[in-house]
Structure formats: C-alpha cells, structure tokens
Amino acid sequence: MNASDSILVVKLGGASGNNPATFCADAARLVRAGRRLVIVHGGSDLTNQLSEQLGHPARFITSPSGHTSRRTDLRTIEIMQMACRGLLNQRLVSGLQALGVNAIGLSGVDGRIWEGDRKAAVRAVEEGRTVVIRDDYTGTVSRVNSNLLQTLLDAGYTPVLSPPAVSTSNETINIDADRAAAVTAASLGASDLLLLTNVPGLLRRYPDEGTLITRVPRHELDTATGLAEGRMKKKILGASEALSGGVRRVIIGDGRRDNPITSALAGEGTTIE
Amino acid sequence: MNASDSILVVKLGGASGNNPATFCADAARLVRAGRRLVIVHGGSDLTNQLSEQLGHPARFITSPSGHTSRRTDLRTIEIMQMACRGLLNQRLVSGLQALGVNAIGLSGVDGRIWEGDRKAAVRAVEEGRTVVIRDDYTGTVSRVNSNLLQTLLDAGYTPVLSPPAVSTSNETINIDADRAAAVTAASLGASDLLLLTNVPGLLRRYPDEGTLITRVPRHELDTATGLAEGRMKKKILGASEALSGGVRRVIIGDGRRDNPITSALAGEGTTIE
What is the pLDDT of residue B19? Predict the structure, then answer.
C-alpha cells in the first residue's frame, strides 16, 4: 500500500471561523491526486442557531466531573438532523461536487455507519444537586460500518459523515464528532487523522495563539489533557483513542487558513504520535 | 431473474394521512422476504411547515399553462434540505432500521443520484401578467446514478431517496419526487413503480373516493391526465415516463392504509400498464 492508497480521515469543526470553501478546495486537490479521504463534520453552532430559531433553545448540562455537554431531548435530535445532516452536510457535499469530487453525505444512522450505546442515565449537576436524566439521547460510537465506507471509497466516492449516530437499540443519538472521527480512522486503518478547528492547535496558554504546542509524544497525552480547554479536551481524548486503535499520527490543525488539510499534513498544528 | 431479484421502486408522499409506521412495517416484510426495494419520498408539507416556522413562508407560482409549482429560491432549497433530507428521510431510515432493514438515506445530491437540468428561466403569471423568474432553483431529473443504487442494493442496503437533486452545473435543485421515482424505476430496470398517496388512486370525480379507476391501459393515459387534479397530474406524467422507460406496471395506491405496498402490488389502487 503506498501513500495514495492510505485513507486520510479529516474532521472539520462546525464553529464559526472554519472556512468550508478553502477546505473543499484543498480536499478536492487531494482527492484528484488520488488520496482517499473520509470527511467528518460536527455542527454545534448551526444546531444552536436553528434551536433558537425554532423556539427550542439549546441547553447544556454539567457532569459531576465538570464536563459540559448538550442536553439532547428528542426535539434536539430532530433539530440536529436538520442542521447537521440536512444543511451543513449538503453544503460540504455540494462544495466538493462543484470541484469534481463525487461526495456522498451520510449521517451515522445511514447504513448504521456509526453505532454505539445510548447512555441509559446521564448525571448532571443542577443548582448544586446531582440529578439523573433518563430522556437524554447521547452516546459513544463503538462500531463503525467500515465495509460500507470501503465500498464507497472503492467505487470512487468521497464519504462526508455527519452526526447523529444510531444506538444498538435503534435510537438516534448525539455523539461527539471528534471522537467519532477517531474511531472511524482506527476502524478504516487510516494512517492519519486530522482534527481541524478554529485555533492553530493545542495551546499552552489558551487562547494565546503564540503558545502553540507543535508536538505531543504519546506518553505526554495526560499533560496535554491538562492544558486543553473546552472542546479541545474531546480532541485530545479522540487523539488518544485513535492512536490506541492503530492510527499512526493525529494532527490538530487550523481550519481557518488556506489549504488547511495540506498544511496540517505538512506539520502545521499540533502533531500527536 | 425471478420476482425476488427484480427491483421495486416505491414513492411515499409526504402529505398528511400517509402513515410512515405502516409503510415501514410493510417495506420491512418485503425486504426480509428478499425483495429489493428503492424508496423515494417527497416532503412538501413538512417543507411548508418549516418555512413558516423559520419566517420564510412557502410561495407558489402558476405557469401560463396553469400548473402550480413551488417558488424555490436558495433559502427554500436550504429549508427543503432540512425538512426532506434532514428530518423526513431520517424518520423513514430509522423506522426501517428498527425493523431490521439496513436503510441508507440519500438526497439526489449525494453521489449525484439524481442529476438534471436547472430551468434557466421560469415563466409565471402574476396579477394577469407573465413574468420571467431567473433565480428559481427547479429542474427535472434526466440522469440517475443507477450504478450507485445497484452497488448499495447488492451490498444489502435499502436506499431511501429524498429531494433535492443536483444540476449539471452543480446547483441544488428542487425536483418533483413522483417524476424522479419514475426515472429511477426506468433507470434501474424495475418491474414495478408504486406511487403511494393520500387517496385510493386516480378518481373519476375527485375527491369522491367511490369513483376509483382501477385500471388505465397505456393508450388511455391522455384521458387519465384530463381527470387528474393537482399533484395527481404529476403522478400520471410520471407513470407515462416510467412506462416509456420500460417499467412494466405503475400502480397509484393508498398510502394511508395498512400494508400499503403489498395492497398496491395486489392490484388495489389504479394500475397503469
């Protein structure tokens, strides 16, 4: 297997600042050069906007250990499907097609691309008390339908994957797209996983972009986790899971710049290996 | 090729009254029995609702020949993607998966399943005057990526197809789902095309359901067109296009009843052959 045969999994954040046009241009160049890409995206910001527009404002819960996550009731799942799968996914698919790449958009539900367990109960801290929420639809991807992704790649398509996912009991569940990208990369035997975001990489003193950490050896991942703020914690966790799954290299790169994919591959950003 | 090898294309209307739960149950029985199904759906009603909720109410235009169609600006395309591809499509996909069918939802944009020409100009009558609209995103499907559909069917998946489609110039376009189902059936060499709606079939005196026409020979399609009201005209047009494309039989059936697919296949509804 040479470099052009190996699969590259790239996750683009949905946060403002990331630039879908330059992302698509860079992705299209790589695909035309023979690189096999699987693209993953989130969509938190657009889900928040649509939630507000539809009178069902986004809510967030804090776990006893201090993690923040989206309160995901069934209406939130519907809004997420509209925002992520309906709109954001199709923007990327259309953007790629306009550049000659035959992209195919799928949520984790389609063909059971991403299957996982729904959390039966979510613990949250509300006004100082720990409460148990049982109607939350969140989970973690534990199985990737890599056969379907390989079939599509072999036929010349570029898959573009979006939350939500499907639970083993056929519920639709919210999952973290960074960690889903990580398990996808591991499952496909990808050499590299790129996590593109709206900062240059892991920062020693967030948000000071002058404090970029360019390289994290695997045995220092715990230290990296201590430095990570907010969503960056999930990226570091995803990186760790990807490396454990056999991915050679994870790069957290800047999704706002020109050529975000080739720049990250060239070592710009934070390389974890 | 025996009956279980032949492909059946079924289009389910999005109008109220159609019952996705009974539809999925019937579809799942057929798939488990070895029938190869391709499912197509519309989503006009949900698009209208979401348009209203998002402050961009649906508008309709009337052509000089008296046909009514949706005024489709770019925002309407986005709303259609959210309603049809984001929400309605995933409801059917999830409903089928819960019954053991590995469904995979795709819009016409994904993998360029449905490609067609965008109308460069749409003529409409407004206040008695004929005007020309140049920012409308509508068209007709002229090419189906049947290779992709066959690949998915061969791998055991059940495709569920949703508007919109992609133009030859990579614009996203609104298309009529009945006619898209017809060209899909022809392209796949399907034996049968079922168009399920919220009436029992073609009625001699709409809306009197006691006046069902059970059979229309192909040479009487012109007469049938004369009897059709509203959206039924598109179904008759689709039926004609499907038969011209080699489909053996088109059945317009009742999507509101139990076992809507097997009932239509058994001859309930209006059979056109």
Answer: 81
Min distance B72 CA to chain A CA atoms (Å): 16
Taking domain A7-272, whether its CATH number is 3.40.1160.10 is answered by yes
The verdict on a CB contact (< 8 Å) between B157 and A147 is no
Low-confidence ranges of chain A (pLDDT < 50): 1-4
All structural domains of chain B with their residue ranges = 7-272
Q: What share of residues in chain B are helix, strand, coil (percent, to 5)?
A: 35, 30, 35
DSSP per-residue codes, chain A:
--TTTSEEEEEE--SBTB-HHHHHHHHHHHHHTT-EEEEEE--HHHHHHHHHHTT----EEE-TTS-EEE---HHHHHHHIIIIIIIIHHHHHHHHHTTT--EEEEETTGGGSEEEEEPS-EEEEETTEEEEESS--BEEEEEE-HHHHHHHHHTT-EEEEES-EEETTS-EEB--HHHHHHHHHHHTT-SEEEEEESSSS-BTTTT-GGGB--EE-GGGHHHHHHH--TTHHHHHHHHHHHHHTT-SEEEEEETTSSSHHHHHHTT-SEEE-
What is the distance between the alpha carbons of residues B172 and B169, in angstroms, rounded to a whole number? 9
By C-alpha distance, the chain A residue nearest B110 is A104
- Per-residue confidence (pLDDT) for residue B11, from 0 to 100: 97
Which chain A residues are closer than 8 Å to B106 by Cβ? 104-106, 110
Q: Report the C-alpha gap between A239 and A236 in whole angstroms.
A: 5
Looking at the predicted structure, is the pLDDT value of residue B2 above 70? no
Please report which confidence band the pLDDT of residue B20 belongs to, taking 50, 70 and 90 as the band edges.
confident
Q: Is the separation of the CB atoms in B71 and B59 below 8 Å?
A: yes
Helix-helix angle A232-244:A177-187, to 10 degrees: 10
A97 contacts in chain B (CB < 8 Å): 109, 112, 166, 170
Residue B46 tokens, joined: 């949900």
Which neighbouring-strand residues pair with B85? none
- Taking contacts as CB-CB distances below 8 angstroms, the residues of chain A near B82 are 50, 82-83, 86-87
Q: Which residues of B touch A82 (CB under 8 A)?
A: 50, 82-83, 86-87
pLDDT (tens digit per residue) in A93-126: 999 999 999 999 999 999 999 999 999 899 999 9
The rounded distance, in Å, linking the Cα atoms of B175 and B114 is 9
Tokens of B137: 């995103």
- Which residue from A241, A115, A116, A114 is spatially nearest to A186, judged by alpha carbons? A241
The whole-model pTM stands at 0.96
Q: Are residues B110 and A93, on separate chains, in Cβ contact within 8 Å? A: yes
Q: CB contacts < 8 Å between A and B, how many? A: 100
